[in-house]
Amino acid sequence: MTETFETIRYTADVIVTTTDGHVLLIQRGWDPFKGQWALPGGHVDPGETSRTAAARELAEEAGVYAAPGELEQIGTFDQPDRDPRGRYITVAYGLTVLPGTTVEAGDDATLAQWWPLGSLPPLAFDHADLIAAATNRTTS
Asked: Where is the Nudix hydrolase domain (predicted)?
């Protein structure tokens, strides 16, 4: 029997919502999905936990600073086809902030913006599923 191995990459994403029903999205500056809207997130660096990576990526991509302990784990998303670059497993975290929280795009995000949960643009990857899991909503 031949064994097959696949490279698996580990990421963290953050669903930041406001108490009045908005979610933070970033516009991607790089492929895949360059120019499309997505959640802040990225690779877990060596020596990091996914929670620490989520807090770091949130600060780097959107200018929102949260202590890792403030992030609530939403779940693990590991569908084999969730990323066109190969097998990516992400741990999603949630954070609720007050309306008017300032955001500023940085790192590999070209824009950071609040969107009403009921009127989201098309999202990259499976990020609609992550938002649905965080907000107990169903995706269509």
From this structure: 7-138
pTM for this model (two decimals): 0.92
Token pair recorded at residue 43? 């690779």
Fold exhibited by the domain 8-135: Nucleoside Triphosphate Pyrophosphohydrolase (3.90.79)
Domain boundaries, the chain: 8-135
Q: So what's the pLDDT on residue 138?
A: 42
Q: Which two tokens stand for residue 136?
A: 């107990």
Task: Give the pairing type, strands 37-38 and 8-18.
Answer: unpaired
Identify the burial level of 28 via C-beta atoms within 10 angstroms of its C-beta, where 0-12 means exposed, 13-18 middle and 19 or more buried.
buried
Contacts of 93 (CB under 8 A, 6+ apart): 12, 13, 14, 15, 50, 51, 54, 71, 72, 73, 74
For 58-86, write each residue's pLDDT tens digit. 999 999 999 999 999 999 999 999 999 99
Q: Report pLDDT for 137.
A: 52
Write down the residue that tokens 């990323």 correspond to: 83
